[in-house]
Amino acid sequence: MDRLDNTIRPYAWGSTTAIPRLLGTEPTGEPQAEMWMGAHPGAPSRTDRGALDEVIDADPEKELGIDSVAKFGPRLPFLLKLLAAGAPLSLQVHPDLTQAKEGYADEERRGVPRNAPHRNYKDANHKPELICALTEFDGLCGFRDPLAAAALLDGLGVDSLKPYVDLLHAHPEEAALREVLTAVLTADPEAMARTVRDAAAACDRLGGAYAPYADIAHHYPGDPGVIAAMLLNHVRLQPGEALFLGAGVPHAYLNGLGVEIMANSDNVLRCGLTPKHVDVPELLRIVRFEATDPGVLRPEAGPDGEEVYETPIDEFRLSRYVLPEGGATHDLTLTNPQILLCTAGTVRAGEHQLTPGRSVFVPAGEETEVSGTGTLFRATVVA
Q1: d(CA 251, CA 131)
Q2: What's the confidence (pLDDT) of residue 304?
Q3: Phosphomannose isomerase type I catalytic domain location, by residue (predicted)?
Q4: Which residue, among 128, 7, 4, has the nearest Cα to 56 in the 3D structure?
Q5: pLDDT at position 41
Q6: Which of 69, 181, 196, 251 has a C-alpha 20 to 30 A away from that of 165?
Q7: How far is it, in rounded angstroms, from Cα 136 to Cα 255?
Q8: Percentage above 70 pLDDT, the chain
Q9: What is the distance of C-alpha 244 from the center of its chain?
Q10: How far apart are CA 95 and CA 340, in angstroms?
Q11: Catalytic residue positions?
Q12: Which residue ranges make up the annotated binding site for Zn(2+)?
């Protein structure tokens, strides 16, 4: 197996302290938002054999296994991350596989440069994802029931929000959510900025259920995404709890440290809370306008101490081992590729000793035994 040297991405919303605290390193003062583990060409992990994407390219069947290559092609189909949000991420949604293929083909046909800021589809893949909290973790996930969203907006006492409240009361669920989100994102920018300012002041005054939106408005003053965010469920995860985010579900991470795994894609359509491009017509085509329960996931006990976060996705499978002091050695050998990440304690994986934030890539079929005291996350595929 290969010890991984991973890139940390300095996105502006990142915490300056969470990842250094986990790694036991000194903060630099700069945001450290995501640590990428995998073979994504944007920031492949490095090994003693070279960059992980190049190692896999040299012999995909040896590194990934025959079954994984047959099902997903000669690429590692997932990307594992440590994600540390110190400020809200953009409100966003991801396409399903058919939409991604169609959108990518269309932009290729029209000659939209892949690095263009207005390009929506960087690849032809979908991007389902799972976030598992390592600390208390706040996020937004899926639409509220329209009547609940109406009550939240109405409680602010802001006159310019009354038309949205009326729409949420007057239509069936899908039409209500679609019309209100459309109206918010296409409103006159100056008028919307005033509405957001008034709503933010009310959120500050009221606190309680409004506190998360006051914080969002503090980071993104005047952004229509502040009002759009109030249409969504607010979720607070405790350590070990997770959220699965499928296609078409609007979401945003607000604060906290977690382990994130996703299909190996970079397709994002933004709804707000960002200076980046917002393609409203394409966004409205992708979003699923239905109220949903966020569906907090807790790991399900499997054999040999493995705790599995069950999802309907084959490109990735995330599980963890909580290894007690003096516990048994566990055989983790698989015919599929794996990345093992330690998040607490000290874990021995083969010849490698892993401390928090350290990880290894395990090629398909390689004999893998782990022992020690701590918490180990296992990322693999279902092939």
Answers
A1: 12
A2: 86
A3: 3-144
A4: 4
A5: 87
A6: 251
A7: 8
A8: 100
A9: 9
A10: 28
A11: 270
A12: 92, 94, 129, 251
